[in-house]
Design a protein that fits this description.
The complex is a heterodimer. Chain A is mainly α. Chain A contains eleven helices and no strands. The longest helix of chain A is centred in the last third of the chain and has 32 residues. In chain B, the strands form eight sheets. Chain B has a five-stranded parallel sheet, with helices on both faces. The chains are: A mainly alpha, B alpha/beta.
């Protein structure tokens, strides 16, 4: 028993068949660890030191991404408890108070959504003030704008789902504003609502957009956004 | 904006980047023999060594190993590979490697070599292998020069030297001992009898300290002292107090030999500090272990005598260090009023040696420099007299064994050119791709192996070797530390898609993606860029259309992660091969 328990485990055949390079205590082993590990291999092995400085990024992009993940997880759980029909939507929402941790679930989703709008906006402010929108990152800035629009669209489509007075009139006012667009306004409103006024068709439409179409597009754009960061040479250089 | 200097790899670039090999005066292919040792093939390791430096067993013990100073591992990770000790291991653990091939092609010409030291022996060896009839003239009763009369046997056992001499004899070199040139036989006579003469008489003349009392009985200069010790001449040191002056190898040898011969007390007086000492730190460690007192920042200013005949003491002065001198070592400055006296029976000044040129006849008209050295062409080793060549310590003053061996071997090639008109060309270097190059993940964690020595209480004989050498296991472990700088990452530009995978994965951050405006290069680089893009360089730079992947080779540890990561197979690991620069 002259070997410590950690050493015995880390030198065992089972451990070594899973973690091939051992504890990454040298530069070489750190690189090998990233290279051989499924979960780590998509990450960069190294990054610029200044990129780790909190006051440069304030982690706003990362926080936005984390909030999106929280929204996805809580959203999926909420889908188990919600029916997108005008007869049941409001009562399902109210019934969440009776479900185990249901209130926390709904509020996590609600506040994360508000938070994401704020952090995405602040992230864009940070990118703007650090001049990170400039070449070679100009295309990623455009993708970022797409993500801002999707974030707002997700918030708006989610607004109707509780089917309460606030939701009903919010969407009524919103879609009425849309109809004021010259020539095509009426068509846009009909396209959004699936009918002439906010009703069952609109709720279903918003539900599908909110739960399937928009999250799917957002996930794809987030992936491209992250991939482009690496392709464009990592985080921008300090000012 | 030009932050990076670009060089397109060419043969000299590859050679420069194998630091150890390039630093060695005979370009010993160290990574190759270390690789052989790591595979347990000691015979191959020995043969590679023998081709390059002739005497691995000797050099493995006493070489000053300039290679280790340039070892990439020593420069960037921890401490260098024990290249020198591995050389010894290759000789210690060899089985029975094939003997040196007999010379088949005999030539008519005859060459005389003055001095059977390392330089003379290596020149004789190479010339004999080229088919010349070689005769070595040695003034002492034994050949070997400083190997036998300068270095004590506890550092270099005599049978090892003898073995090397026998090998040289075996290829047909005649050795005439006890024949100093300039007495019965002189240089002119040699010139008449031989087609070429190589003078490698070494630097056996002691340099004096130039202080009062240096002629007293009991003052023996280091090189003389060591010769007397090694030739077992009458020298009564038992029970005496000895002070050795100097900080070089001769000083260490003289002090340690005195101790082994029974001196009551031995001290070293060195005018600078430990940092400036021009000896291997391992040797200083051993000196201290053996109980020799080293007085740093101390120098003698007068040798004292009570009876006017024998040494009874020395007056010394303390120094402080001043500004650095030309060689980078700080100048010692005596501190006024710090004089003190020591009681001693022997003073051994071992500060420097010089060649004894008194045997060179003036009538021949050999050119002598202001510093009493024979003037030779540094490339051909030719003197101003046709047919007379000189090299080794004789032309430069004391250096080290590997440098004089290099002189001997280069002079042999030059003499061959002089006698035959033929200029032997270097063999072409080439690369072989490695299919599965793997590196041990723990490589950076393996510590430098420490060589075992015999315990201090056993170090009372001059003959008993102190260092025991590496065991096979230790040698292999040490060899596994080698980064194998002779393996290179070779890039196929046409396959690279500039994905940056190599830049990212490299654990040592060797790679970088750069724009043209960030780099500067030579004419060759400009031409390459122009040929790739078909426009003038400035135009390409202005349009910013070229992207470069550049590599800092000096940090590479040959882990091959870049080659594995490369999605297009643009990077391959390839091993650099070349033959010995002397065996042609």
């Amino acid at each position: 028993m002259d070997k410590g328990i950690i050493k015995r485990i880390s030198e065992s055949a089972i451990w070594r068949s899973i973690f091939r390079t051992g504890i990454p205590d040298t530069d070489l082993k750190r690189s090998m660890f990233m290279y051989h590990n499924f979960f780590l291999h998509i990450f960069p092995v190294k990054m610029k030191r200044h990129g780790l400085k909190f006051s440069y990024t304030f982690c706003l992009g990362g926080i936005s991404c984390l909030l999106f993940i929280i929204l996805t997880v809580t959203g999926i759980l909420l889908m188990f408890l919600y029916t997108p029909s005008i007869e049941r939507a409001y009562f399902d929402m109210k019934a969440l108070a009776l479900v185990f941790n249901g209130k926390i679930l709904r509020n996590l989703h609600r506040w994360s959504a508000h938070g994401m709008v704020v952090t995405v906006f602040l992230h864009m402010v940070r990118v703007f003030y650090t001049r990170s929108y400039r070449p070679p990152r100009e295309f990623n800035w455009v993708i970022g704008i797409g993500l801002l629009i999707l974030t707002l669209a997700l918030s708006y489509t989610g607004y109707l789902l509780p089917w309460d007075q606030l939701a009903y009139w919010g969407i009524t006012v919103g879609t009425t504003i849309m109809s004021y667009a010259p020539f095509v306004g009426k068509y846009i409103r009909f396209f959004m609502l699936g009918a002439d006024e906010v009703g069952h068709e609109a709720l279903l439409r918003f539900y599908v957009l909110h739960c399937v179409v928009l999250p799917f597009l957002t996930a794809i754009l987030i992936a491209i956004h992250f991939w482009r960061i690496r392709k464009d040479g990592g985080i921008s250089d300090p000012l | 904006m030009n932050r990076f200097r670009i060089r397109i790899p060419d043969p000299p670039w590859f050679e420069e980047n194998i630091g150890c090999e390039n630093a060695c005066p005979v370009n010993t292919r160290a990574p190759r023999y270390i690789l052989a040792i790591s595979q347990g093939d000691y015979d191959r390791a020995f043969l590679i060594n023998r081709e390059d430096n002739l005497f691995p067993a000797i050099l493995g013990r006493i070489c000053v190993h300039p290679c280790e100073e340039k070892c990439r591992r020593g420069l960037f990770i921890d401490s260098p590979i024990s290249i020198c000790s591995l050389k010894r291991a290759s000789a210690d653990h060899k089985g029975s490697p094939p003997p040196i091939k007999k010379v088949t092609h005999r030539r008519e010409k005859r060459v005389a070599i003055i001095g059977a030291g390392p330089s003379g022996l290596s020149a004789a060896h190479d010339l004999a292998r080229l088919g010349y009839e070689v005769t070595l003239y040695e003034s002492y009763s034994i050949p070997g020069g400083m190997l036998n009369v300068g270095i004590p046997p506890y550092r270099l056992p005599r049978e090892i030297v003898q073995e090397a001499i026998e090998e040289v004899k075996k290829i047909g070199v005649e050795m005439i001992l006890n024949t100093p040139i300039g007495q019965e036989l002189n240089l002119e006579e040699l010139r008449r009898r031989y087609d070429a003469v190589y003078i490698a008489a070494g630097a056996h003349k002691a340099e004096k300290l130039g202080i009062p009392g240096e002629d007293l009985k009991g003052v023996i200069h280091g090189v003389t002292f060591m010769r007397m010790v090694n030739l077992k001449e009458d020298l009564e040191v038992r029970g005496k107090r000895v002070a050795v002056v100097g900080g070089g190898n001769t000083a260490m040898d003289a002090s340690r030999s005195s101790l082994r011969m029974g001196a009551k007390e031995v001290m070293i007086l060195y005018r600078r500090t430990k940092e400036e000492m021009p000896v291997d730190p391992r040797e200083i460690e051993q000196v201290e272990e053996e109980g020799i007192q080293v007085n740093y920042l101390t120098q003698p200013i007068e040798v004292l005598s009570k009876d006017g005949v024998n040494v009874s003491g020395a007056r010394c002065i303390k120094n402080r260090l001043g500004d650095p001198e030309k060689d980078g070592r700080r100048r010692p400055i005596p501190i006024e009023g710090s004089e003190f006296e020591i009681e001693i029976d022997f003073l051994i000044p071992a500060v420097s040696q010089s060649p004894d040129i008194s045997f060179l006849p003036e009538e021949i008209g050999l050119e002598i420099s202001r510093w009493d050295r024979l003037v030779v062409d540094p490339d051909t080793f030719e003197t101003n007299i046709k047919g007379i060549f000189a090299g080794g310590d004789f032309v430069t003053g004391p250096r080290d064994v590997i440098r004089v061996i290099a002189d001997g071997r280069k002079a042999a090639l030059s003499i061959h050119h002089y006698l035959s008109g033929e200029r032997l060309k270097k063999g072409e270097a080439y690369f072989t791709p490695l299919v599965n190059h793997e590196i041990c993940p723990e490589i950076e964690k393996i510590p430098r192996q420490k060589m075992e020595t015999i315990p201090v209480f056993e170090r009372h004989s001059l003959e008993k070797e102190v260092e025991l050498g590496f065991s096979k296991e230790m040698a292999q472990r040490e060899a596994h530390r080698c980064l194998k700088c002779h393996i290179f990452t070779i890039f196929d530009r046409s396959k690279c898609i500039l994905c940056g995978g190599c830049v990212d994965i490299c654990p040592k951050t060797c790679f970088r993606m750069a724009e043209l405006k960030e780099v500067e290069g030579d004419e060759k680089f400009l031409k390459l860029v122009e040929s790739l893009y078909g426009s003038p360089f400035e135009e390409i730079k202005r349009l910013n259309i070229a992207t470069l992947i550049i590599k800092d080779e000096s940090r590479c540890i040959q882990c091959s992660l870049c080659a594995k990561r490369c999605p297009t197979g643009a990077i391959t690991m390839e091993e650099y091969h070349r033959g010995s620069i002397f065996y042609r």
